[in-house]
Fold each of these.
Amino acid sequence: MRRADGSVPGSVRRRLTRYLTYAQDLRSRGAEWVSSRDIAEGLGLTSSTVRQDMSFVDFSGVSKKGYETIGLEKVLTSMLGADTVWNCVVVGAGNLGAAIARHEEFARRGFSIQGIFDNDPRKTGRRVGALTVRPISEMPPFVGRHRTDIGILAVPAPAAQQVADLLIASGIKGLLNMALAHIVAPRRVAVMDSRIIVSLMELTHLIKYPPERGAGGA
Amino acid sequence: MRRADGSVPGSVRRRLTRYLTYAQDLRSRGAEWVSSRDIAEGLGLTSSTVRQDMSFVDFSGVSKKGYETIGLEKVLTSMLGADTVWNCVVVGAGNLGAAIARHEEFARRGFSIQGIFDNDPRKTGRRVGALTVRPISEMPPFVGRHRTDIGILAVPAPAAQQVADLLIASGIKGLLNMALAHIVAPRRVAVMDSRIIVSLMELTHLIKYPPERGAGGA
DNA sequence: TAGATTGTTAATCGATTAACAATC
DNA sequence: TAGATTGTTAATCGATTAACAATC
């Protein structure tokens, strides 16, 4: 059931990104068509879920053939905003922040890292890839001037909310939170958590207590 | 409703990690007690959800006071395996893999990075933090010898399944998948996805189509 | 045509929230 | 005691799966 405003339930959103990478992969390997059953088997879902999810997407399959991979890739790319360049800044020039700033994959995927900021005077002035680490005090005007869309929080947990507030006040549209802290933001600012340590803790729990066959896993 | 085998629904597992970091944070700031209402407000949940989740945890609150932060931290630490050292290897010595191998936070949290592997001859032999990058061919005996629990996949997507198969055959217990690929593994091997690019894509979708007030967000 | 696959409706299942007796 | 908070049961809500008519 497609919604008028294009929003989708969170459960569906999480799968749309997987459908996109799957479609890209298929197309790069020359497949022209893919059925809901193929997708389901490839990603560990049921074909019902796939078809139900597709009802949120403005794209129709063809009976007996399935979905055309080119079209599927195109519509999901647009829906997820992967056809746009998103201006990003990284806050925190530690191991993780620096790795993101240096990683070419982000630019390739449309996430342009415009600047990297840190308050540690031993880090400011250093070069990280093509960028120079600047003090956080320079961040608010920078974000305003460069029309930055996304702030990537790679700072220690105790600093995270403070930095988030600064980014929000500077007009950021979304935050990727890599810090081990819960970020509070007004509703107009999207927040997405992405934390390797948390994933590792979930993984160790999963190793210690494997889910009964069937029950909702990863 | 606590289960006999200690397993919990995935939805609850994801929140347990948050309760743990919240309890650690509270305790480090000197709080002795916390109520389900406090936790709910701190993490953006309802107190009902918190109490329901706590019924999966072998720990009781005290009426009129709430939960003792020390005890809560202790039981969640044990439940999530955060009181154990987990032996890890990183496969892929690119930006992300190297950042993980260098990051002290992992060791501090009980994730001991024992080795880092890569097939690129320009990378093997290089030092990354305290480790030396070894060729992937050395990985299987290494994993056997060091009783490695967890493999962290930081390789390009096309190589991910192949590397995963190698780790699985070597007796790994869990995989943290940072590659843009779906990993197929036998049921005895736990797999957890953790991908920054995917989180960014979900974030841009969230920016483009903000959920209606209420509906399931992050 | 026969068969495969979509799109959608209905049924099931699970997760969240509300409500409230029990407790300290 | 009165009031606050837990633990749990019941109600609601949402997500997944099953089923099947429509289609090519």
Note: Chain A has a mean pLDDT of 95.
Amino acid sequence: MDPVIELLRKHGIQATPQRIAVAQVALESAAHPSADEVLAQVRRRCPTVSRATVYNTLHLFVERGLLHAQVLREGTVVFDPLVEPHHHFVDDETGRIYDVPWDALKVTGHRSLADFDVREHQVVLRGRRRRT
Amino acid sequence: MDPVIELLRKHGIQATPQRIAVAQVALESAAHPSADEVLAQVRRRCPTVSRATVYNTLHLFVERGLLHAQVLREGTVVFDPLVEPHHHFVDDETGRIYDVPWDALKVTGHRSLADFDVREHQVVLRGRRRRT
DNA sequence: GTTCGTGCAAACGGTTTGCAACAAT
DNA sequence: ATTGTTGCAAACCGTTTGCACGAAC
């Protein structure tokens, strides 16, 4: 059986063809796609899928902990299948977003803030990705 | 002379009444307002100002370094008159954004990333503001 | 047969654009 | 005269909503 179907079931999500298609795109992409980018990708395989279904499904996945929604681009939310804590790098030129492993950076001082009860933190880096 | 007029001139900006009004709202607010929130505030004093003028003016101020645009809220950009490097705390319940002084936190490791040429970094904290 | 999922189209909120009128230089 | 600034309305883009049809339990 397709492992994605099992993953959805495990999270109490009925595995419909549309949801499987969304899952295959959104859970396997490291590109931090927006909802509309997921929609475009999904439609290449399954052109009948509606915008509303993709938005519903993405929100459902976020609710169930399969995805995280991140506010890193102007005007749109992006979805990240890496749900463990990590940081992000945003390329100034391309706008592309890259994951930065949690252990690559260390933040100190956030525990001793007088006014704020910090639940989570992340570092947002901006600059240029090095030409490989 | 109004200090705001001098500030605008110093940055090569022609000081029109509309721009002065936008400046008084956006440069003196620590609330990290969105463009529409600035518009609403400005219109309380000067109801004839158009939406386009406020958007134009805010972008001009960002271009000239009087404001920074920050991507911290879903669906909208917010403007921050504090242009020196600092971090941000976002209240989960109210959505309000607070400045966190640069020296309150320390980030290490961002200089030794192989793939990325980091130009700037900031920490985004989320949680609850302590009831004072 | 009631609930759940889907598709469509309209509505919505924030932002941008085109253009005509006007003020400043 | 040329350039810069404003206001209005329409367009635009990402997202949400309402509703009716159909599938699953």
Note: Chain B has a mean pLDDT of 96.
